[in-house]
Amino acid sequence: MKSIKFTISIIILIILFLTIDNALSFYGKGFNFFNNKITYSYNTDFDSLEGFKIEEEGFIQIIGSGTRINNSVEVSKILEYTYNSAGIFCEILDNRNKVIFVKVQYDNKRKPGTRIYYTFVQKSEINKGLKWYKVDNSSFVQLLEILKLVIMFTIAITIVLLIIHLLNKKQVVKK
């Protein structure tokens, strides 16, 4: 009976872990077990040196720190982003500390090397119903990261206790 409780506990903890990891993947900090993709098979990543960035599947940076947009603006960091079928919308801080909104689009019909293109937009042009993801190290994201670590630790302890319980059960049966 005890092993069933341990097993159910492990399953519940793993479901919680996967749910939290799924939420963190939108901030570039999850393990991406569900392979979360934002539009056009782009994914997010958080690098401790470069900060948050949006990448293509081959880990090619689409937009992030250092990206030059139309040869006039260099991205310092992405503040928040959203996406829909029309593209990815980013609120960025440029290297002159100016906040700019950029639309990132992908066009299969364009020549290789120019398929990803950027346009400057006003925030009012962006669909108001979209969910914006703040990518700074907000307390919400930090809380999720801590919760993920606690759940990972709890899963490990529960598995060890289950193994110890099963080993003790085998020894009792042998006597």
Quick structural summary:
The chain has 175 residues and is an alpha+beta fold. It is 34% helix and 30% strand. The chain crosses the membrane at residues 146-167.
What is the rounded Rg?
22 Å
Structural class designation:
alpha+beta
Poorly predicted sequence stretches spanning 5 or more consecutive residues: none
End-to-end CA span: 20 Å
What's the order of the H and E elements? HEEEEEEEEEH
- Form type: elongated
Largest sheet: 6 strands, antiparallel
Regarding quaternary structure, what we see is: single chain
In which range does the helix fraction lie? 25-40%
Average residue-wise pLDDT = 85
> How many individual β-strands?
9
Number of H/I helices: 2
Number of domains: 2
- Could you tell me the strand content as a percent range? 25-35%
Keywords: Membrane, Transmembrane, Transmembrane helix
Transmembrane segments: 146-167
